[in-house]
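SEVERITY: medium
COMPONENT: batch folding queue
REPORTER: lab tech (J.R.)

DESCRIPTION
The queue accepted two submissions in a row. Attaching both inputs and their returned structure tokens so the on-call engineer can compare them side by side.

ATTACHMENT 1
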Amino acid sequence: ILNRELWKQMSFSKKIGWIVQYYGATIVVAIISILVVVSLIKSIITGGDKGDMRVIILDNGVSSELCQVYQDEVSNLIEGDAEMTAYIKNDPTHMQAFSVRLTADDLDVVIAPKEEMQEMAENGYLLSYDINGITAFYNGFPLEKQLIVKTEANPEGAVWAIQLDHESRYMTYRRDAGAKEEEDMYLGVTIRKVNDHNIEKTALYLLEQ
């Protein structure tokens, strides 16, 4: 049995490796099956509309209530249905669910601490501005706010995420809800994005002061 202190000390990639080793493919298949069924039902009801904005958050400081606030405001912003789900970084069950969604689900934006975001970039879960030409998303942000990571595909380094300023809407709401400023949070675009037209609008809204 893995104790909570040892879990906290493990890196993001080691946590995923431990989950795969001890829980195996059965749980992954079950969760993916549920996601497929839900997606199928939604497609039947909505006619396959891809107008949603899907965001996943890995953050010890965001409760389900605060996540609902973000979701409601983004839904109003894009005049559509936003789905925003928060996972607790220090909870093994939440990490398992986060990892499965990151690898198997269609998602647009991910918010996570710097270390986890860097490992997502290295493992191919994010899109970079330099490699994939994401229009103006990363433009206008100072260099110190850009997460630049060197990968095999780009040994010179590329911009993979933007730091959420402590005065940004995301961090301000988080702080007002009583969360501690444990670590800096970053926002990036996932490799499985489906809603290009709303990504920049949503991201800038959360990054805005």
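ATTACHMENT 2
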Amino acid sequence: IYGQGENYLNNFFDFSKSLDGNFGTVSTLSNGNVISASWTDDGNLVTQIYDTYGSLINQQSIFSNGGPLENFDINDTGSYNKYPGASFRADISIISDDKYLISWTDQEKNYAKIFDSNNNLLHEYISENLDYTSNRFSSVPLDDGSILFSSYDMGYDYIESGIGNGNLRIIKMSDDLDTVISSEIIETVHNHVGTFQDMSKLSNGNV
């Protein structure tokens, strides 16, 4: 990660920091602190907060799925989709009052957690067991305070066919992750083209 500019105390900063882990994601709070989330080789999802000078403020493991990275065969790209429990890049969204949300999947359930700027857990969501395989659980905060999630349902046998179809699904939840407001399939896609879908909110509020 790299930081360069002026923080909220009007102090200039310029740093670079190498992150450990796999499938890393980074985002920035309004005070300039940097949040990262990445997977360790033994299957832990670790979050870290760095200040504007690159110093580590806080680090914690927020989830463990038992080391699926050891199952991956680098010579077989299909192995990333063959093993239940395999996890991929977590998603970080900055929400109101400098809170942030991390969402991810282990291909068996979808997960989301909301933390404050000091890495204290505020809210949590864990789905029921999925009747489909999910490769990513993306999130974006909406203007009405709710949170929109998206996932790609991979319903296929990759080992036999190598090709599968699925549904692009969106789920709208309350800001405390306690209530599912709506859930719908918005598109059926083919040949797993939606595997690594993502979302962004435009300036007009559209997603």
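NOTES FROM REPORTER
Confidence is low (pLDDT under 50) at residues 79-85.
No errors were logged for either attachment.
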